[in-house]
Amino acid sequence: MKIALGCDHGALALKNKLVTHLENKGFEAKDFGTYTLDSCDYPDFAGAAAKAVASGECEKGIVLCTTGIGVSIVANKVKGIRCALLSDVMSARMTREHNDTNMMAIGAGVVGEMLALEIVDTWLGTEFSQDERHQRRIDKVMALEK
């Protein structure tokens, strides 16, 4: 599975750890930057990652900034994206089971490295429930884009 990643300077260290972690688990990580600690604009990198997921170039995406808020807003502006801001394992599981999210956001200043890795593993390892009520709700959410 190919995973798109994007971050700003505030989450560079965590993104780099995630790239290594994902590759060690057999995923292909497509890194949309940033690549330095120089101050930058998170929409440039989160937007690129979200567009890669929306186009099908990547199956899922992970975006990061200091809080995760900005990048989650950006990702959710891209048609076809359902991005959840995650800071705990239960939410990671539930957003896949109930919302079939195709992207997740994380705040590097909010969540430590070990918890972030556990959240990512849980999110990637959880399948959508296929429950009709959840699909019905997702369909209603996605209809708002039209």
Question: What does it look like?
Answer:
49% of the residues lie in helices and 16% in strands. It has helices at 12-24, 42-55, 69-76, 89-99, 113-125, 132-143; strands at 2-7, 28-31, 60-65, 83-85, 103-107. It has a 5-stranded parallel beta sheet with strand order 2-1-3-5-4, with helices on both faces. Helix 1 crosses helix 5 (113-125) and helix 4 (89-99) runs parallel beside helix 5. The protein starts with a strand and ends with a helix.
Q: Roughly how many Å apart are the termini? A: 29 Å
User: Main sheet?
Assistant: 5 strands, parallel
| H and E string | EHEHEHEHEHH
Average residue-wise pLDDT:
97
Helix share of residues? Answer: 40-55%
Percentage of β-strand residues? 15-25%
CATH homologous superfamily label: Sugar-phosphate isomerase, RpiB/LacA/LacB
Count of DSSP E strands?
5
How many domains make up the coordinates? Answer: 1
Give the CATH topology.
Answer: Ribose 5-phosphate Isomerase B, Chain: A
- Model regions low in confidence, pLDDT < 50 over at least 5 residues: none
The geometry reads as globular
SS field, number of helical segments: 6
Radius of gyration: 14 Å
- The CATH class is identified as Alpha Beta
CATH architecture: 3-Layer(aba) Sandwich
How would you classify the helix and strand content by structural class? alpha/beta
Read across the widest sheet, the strand sequence of neighbours is 2-1-3-5-4
